[in-house]
Design goal:
The protein is α/β, with parallel strands linked by helices and 176 residues long. The protein has a single domain, classed as 3-Layer(aba) Sandwich (Rossmann fold). The chain has eight helices and eight strands. A six-stranded parallel beta sheet has the order 5-4-1-6-7-8, sandwiched between helices. Strands 2-3 form a two-stranded antiparallel ribbon. Helix 1 crosses helix 7 and helix 2 packs parallel to helix 7. The protein starts with a helix and ends with a helix.
Length: 176
């Protein structure tokens, strides 16, 4: 656990895949062809806490959906890359913009297209239901599934490693 906390303490940028990470991986359509995604409120709270704590947050997804842009805006996500067939190129754009090293990046992914990033970053994370090949390259495997609290686990780990999680707990306790 100490090694995991040391990795988490170096993080400045956290990037997330969408389907299977921010959602449970289900893709639903209405009769009119409108895509529906369901997001987890606890995951969203974790992403908001990261943003409020000064971390750069990003979404990197191969698909394109207006609902992802809306959710990202709700959560104060710094950058959104949709239609990113080459996810590593999107990450390299972020590294160039912010001057961060790969060691300062955490990424949460769940399937083959994420391995190109997960195998390089300082803190590679995945949900419990990620494919085995992703789990093999990850430093942290949440006990929660994608879209069911895995992102919150990652956020809590990073915030706890920098002694910032307690600030949110105390703030909420004082509001009661």
């Amino acid at each position: 656990m100490k090694n995991l906390f040391e990795k988490a303490q170096k993080i400045k940028l956290i990037a997330f895949d969408v389907d299977g990470v921010l959602t449970d991986g289900s893709i639903s359509y209405t009769d009119q062809g409108i895509e529906i995604k369901t997001f987890n409120a606890k995951d969203g709270q974790g992403m908001s806490m990261l943003a409020d704590s000064g971390y750069i947050t990003a979404i990197i997804t191969a698909r394109t959906s207006a609902i992802v842009q809306r959710r990202a805006a709700d959560l104060k996500v710094t950058r959104v890359f949709q239609g990113a067939k080459n996810k590593l190129l999107a990450l390299e754009t972020l590294l160039s913009e912010y001057g961060f090293s790969l060691e300062e990046v955490a990424y949460v992914g769940d399937d083959f297209p994420d391995i190109c990033i997960l195998s390089r970053v300082g803190l590679a994370c995945c949900p419990f239901d990620a494919v085995d090949e992703v789990k093999d390259v990850c430093h942290f495997i949440s006990q929660k599934k994608g879209g069911k609290g895995a992102v919150r686990d990652v956020a809590n780990l990073i915030l706890k490693s920098s002694d910032q999680l307690e600030r949110f707990v105390m703030h909420k306790a004082l509001q009661q």
